[in-house]
Design brief:
By secondary structure, the protein is an alpha+beta fold. The chain folds into two domains: 250 residues, Cathepsin B, Chain A (Alpha-Beta Complex), CATH 3.90.70.10; 129 residues, Alpha-Beta Complex (Cathepsin B, Chain A), CATH 3.90.70.10. The protein has twelve helices and 14 strands. Strands 1, 2, 5, 6, 7, 8, 9, 10, 11, 12, 13 and 14 form a twelve-stranded mixed beta sheet that branches. Helix 2 packs antiparallel against helix 5. The longest helix is centred in the first third of the chain and has 18 residues. The radius of gyration is 22 Å and the shape is globular. The N terminus is likely disordered.
Length: 405
């Protein structure tokens, strides 16, 4: 249980939007007064919101969205890249490693940002129109059966007495993936030209995967070094750069201010992650210091459930947690912060009293009043961020020097 202490190039626009309170139907004109009004100060180019639906593939959707924005930043054409091409290859690579490690590895639908860049470097990429991962008339992604089948399959392989590695990994697992997602094309035509996945990645997408790095901030490893982040979804044991959390925050702001969006991996299980019905994520803290003696007595007499109900009404601006490096580390070590969800930060906004929120593109379709986007407060991002992926030029020069980039 968690403890609640509780574009092409750079351009900026100013646009006022409201964070609505109450669980109203999308588009309801009779909504209650907003808890927050956001003035968007930076909005960077992004492609349309997608829907991962009933899958654990947020890592692919968020990173693909990030890379699509990178193409727009560089003046390249807008394209809808295939998330399932990456998922398909990642599952195959993960199965091989699972077998080689005798089953001593996390094997699930989860993944990390670097899975996408690793797959694109090795296998290329294709457009969504070429490989959607939807077969037999499917309209949305539902992976429960496939995930379960693959888990059972790799466990059965490990438990068998005789293993023909090439056969079980390259035939058995790949056959299952083909049945659920479809076979990967070896070549295809797009906009009148013929490509392979590799040539499409180099000639059309044209991004250098070595330009993208991952950042985290924890004290159990030295700062300004790289380490393997110890979370189950980092199955490939890739290394991330470790910086103090104030510099992690600086990287986010510097990136956005210089035209670079940010892939964001975070814990979204906090009660203040109210993106469906409110459109924002905040970290409320008990306002005891603002209470008189009568109010303090009333607060102390409340049950924990009543306190939660009061804290998370979120019908007006709330005082938020002041985050420290030590709090981040404790939350990581105690499993209060876990690798829940990958998203895409594409902008920055401020409220009327100057509080900073980040505009986040999610992959849950058009699920809320902001058409699939939401606003995350700076304290929420400071506390709940597990890792970022950024273009290395989105790192401030002084920090780049410390990281030897």
């Amino acid at each position: 249980m968690k403890l609640h202490v509780t574009i092409t190039g750079f351009f900026a626009v100013v646009f006022t939007v409201a964070g609505f309170a109450g669980n109203n139907v999308k588009g309801d004109k009779t909504a209650a007064a907003p808890a927050y009004v956001f003035e968007e100060e930076i909005i960077l180019p992004a492609t349309s919101v997608k829907d991962q639906y009933r899958t654990g593939t947020c890592w692919s959707f968020s990173t693909i969205s990030f890379l699509e924005s990178e193409m727009l930043r560089l003046g390249k054409p807008e394209v809808d890249l295939s998330e399932m091409f990456v998922v398909r290859h990642t599952y195959s690579e993960k199965a091989k490693r699972f077998v080689r490690l005798h089953g001593e590895l996390s094997f699930s639908a989860g993944g990390a940002f670097h899975d996408v860049t690793n797959i694109m470097s090795e296998y290329g990429i294709v457009p969504e129109s070429v490989y959607s991962g939807l077969i037999d008339g499917q309209k949305k992604h539902v992976h429960n059966d496939m995930d379960n089948a693959l888990v059972n399959e790799v466990k059965s392989i490990v438990n068998s007495k005789e293993i023909d590695f090439q056969k079980v990994c390259n035939e058995t697992v790949d056959s299952t993936l083909n049945n659920y997602l479809g076979e990967i094309p070896q070549s295809f035509e797009y906009e009148g030209k013929n490509y392979t996945p590799q040539s499409f990645a180099t000639d059309y997408v044209g991004l250098n995967m070595d330009d993208y790095i991952e950042i985290t901030s924890y004290t159990h490893h030295p700062f300004y070094s790289k380490f393997i982040l110890e979370v189950p979804d980092n199955w490939s044991w890739d290394e991330l750069y470790n910086v103090p959390f104030n510099e992690m925050n600086e990287i986010i702001d510097y990136s956005l201010e210089n035209g670079y969006t940010v892939a964001w991996a975070a814990d979204v299980s906090e009660k203040g992650f109210a993106t469906s019905n409110k459109g924002f994520a905040v970290l409320p803290v008990a306002p005891a210091e603002k209470m008189d003696e009568t109010e303090i007595a009333k607060w102390q007499a409340m049950t924990e459930k009543e306190k939660d109900r009061e804290l998370y009404k979120l019908d007006k601006p709330v005082k938020e947690l002041e985050v420290t490096q030590e709090m981040r580390q404790t939350a990581f070590d105690n499993y209060q912060t876990t690798d829940d969800h990958g998203m895409h930060i594409i902008g920055m906004a401020k409220t009327s009293d100057g509080k900073v929120f980040y505009k986040v593109k999610n992959s849950w379709g058009d699920y809320n009043k902001f058409d699939g986007y939401f606003y995350a407060s700076k304290p929420y991002v400071e506390y709940k961020t597990m890792s970022l992926m950024v273009h290395k030029d989105g790192v401030p020069p002084a920090i780049r020097e410390k990281l030897k980039l």
